[in-house]
Design goal:
The chain is of the alpha+beta class. Helix content is about 30%, strand content about 25%. Among the domains are: about 110 residues, no CATH class; about 80 residues. The longest helix has 24 residues.
Length: about 270
């Protein structure tokens, strides 16, 4: 695998500049610099994103319940795969296949609407003309303790909180995260989360500088092993100072101090 955009290449070359390593191009990524940079790119990026509630990466979503779709096997069972988008020919309803139990039973997350009785279900390649009484959809209940489970967004990287309006602004913790799902007794599930992003043109400037320095520090051993100690120390000092500054500025943009306390007092909680 390799970098796929010019913005990634431009950004990686800025990192390589910092350690006086060779440059790379979008067309030719066979060099040691390209291979090593790509190997560290996504792990370092995602670790930094997950380490903090970066305001420019926070988002909100209303999650969809995980459900079980059952199809009939006449005249022949369909064969849908994980990740496929199923569409109802009559309803236009869409759903994503999360897992496959059998040719007729699929765990899904609705993207829109509800399937209707007797319609054709298709993934764009395979299709099944359902008989009367099919398809059926039922809530996929966790094995024990909770009533519902919800699929997290594909760009999810860190959960901030689950929000349910109970008449106050109190955060309610009657939920748990397990893998890529939220388990809860709530009949709806709204979350705030930190999302992943890979395009450097979408980075906040301070975040971009911090990631550059983290990458540079990681790439010194494989690409700049002979770098003078004074230059290594300078990168380390810049990394520590930039991280403190980036987190401080971000915290000032995400400050709701007093809001919850005031409302809790208002409602006598």
């Amino acid at each position: 695998m390799a970098f796929t955009t010019t913005s990634e290449i431009t950004y990686i070359n800025q990192i390589l500049d910092r350690i006086s390593a060779g440059q790379i191009t979008l067309a030719d990524q066979t060099s040691q610099e390209a291979k090593v940079s790509f190997r560290h790119w996504i792990p370092t990026l995602n670790a930094l994103i997950r380490s903090y509630e970066w305001p420019f990466l926070t988002d909100r979503a209303t999650l969809v319940q995980v459900q079980t779709l059952t199809l009939d096997d006449s005249p022949a069972p369909a064969s849908f795969s994980v990740g496929a988008t199923l569409t109802g020919g009559t309803s236009g309803t869409t759903a994503t296949v999360l897992s496959v139990t059998s040719d007729t039973v699929y765990v899904i997350a609705y993207l829109s609407g509800d399937f209707t009785d007797g319609e054709v279900i298709s993934d764009g390649t395979n299709s099944l003309d359902c008989a009367t009484g099919y398809p059926t959809v039922a809530v996929t209940t966790p094995t024990y303790e909770w009533t519902y489970q919800y699929e997290l967004p594909t760009n999810f990287l860190r959960l901030i909180d689950v929000y349910e309006d109970d008449g106050t602004d109190a955060r309610d913790d009657r939920w748990t995260r397990e893998g890529n799902r939220i388990l809860t007794n709530y009949t709806t599930c709204n979350i705030r989360f930190v999302k992943t992003v890979t395009d450097p043109s979408d980075f906040d400037p301070l975040f971009a500088e911090l990631l550059l320095l983290r990458m540079a520090w990681k790439l010194i051993p494989p690409l700049a092993g002979t770098m003078a100690k004074v230059d290594r120390d300078e990168i380390w000092r810049d990394l520590q100072a930039t991280e403190a500054r980036a987190r401080s500025v971000s915290s000032q943009e995400n400050n709701q101090t007093g809001r919850m306390d005031w409302n809790l007092a208002r409602y006598g909680a």
